[in-house]
Amino acid sequence: MTSEPSEFDGFQKIREEHRQLRGLLEQIETALTERSGSIDAVVDLIGQLGHQLTKHFQTEEAGGYFADALYEAPQLVNRANDLMLQHPKMTKSARNLADAADPNTDPERWWQQTTERFEAFRAELGKHEREEDQLIQEAYIRDIGSND
Ligand SMILES: [Fe+2]
Ligand SMILES: [Fe+2]
Q: Which pLDDT score is estimated for 1?
């Protein structure tokens, strides 16, 4: 087997990053639901999420945002552009996640607001990533089909 980097490897990297992000989201979800750790620990996890997300969006955009696959499937370009335009907004939302109520004056309110913001963010990112996975799959299947 050759191990030449291919378009497929690029997709695998993106899907692997999606898996890692889901893991981190799961960890934050647990921390917020169980409140087993400190506020600082949650803020730290949310900081990690911001970094991982920025890196992930860079990975996707550095590859021309699925440009190779989309060259073979131009009918998917509009959907891809719409998805890419969601990146800056989600980066901003991730940064704002921990800026809820002042945890020193009202910790209960902080937990509640952060949990609400996080749930909304998680749903938004989850939808975005599922649509990307779907796009990758459709583009890749078309590509295989065209080589038959
Ligand atoms: Fe994305
Ligand atoms: Fe993604």
A: 44
Single-letter amino acid, residue 11: F
66 phi and psi angles, rounded to 5 deg = 65, 25
CA of 65, nearest ligand number: 1
CA of 132 to the centre of ligand 1 (A): 7
Position 1 in a domain: no
| Cα–ligand 2 centroid distance for 1 (angstroms) | 28
Residue 3 in this model has a pLDDT that exceeds 50: no
Its pTM stands at 0.84
Domain, as residue range, for 68: 7-146
pLDDT in tens, 117-127: 999 999 999 99
Residues ≥6 apart with Cβ < 8 Å to 91: 50, 53, 54, 57
Number of domains in the chain: 1
* 2 CA from centroid of ligand 1 (Å): 29
- Structural domain includes residue 102: yes
Distance 31 CA to ligand 1 centre (A): 25
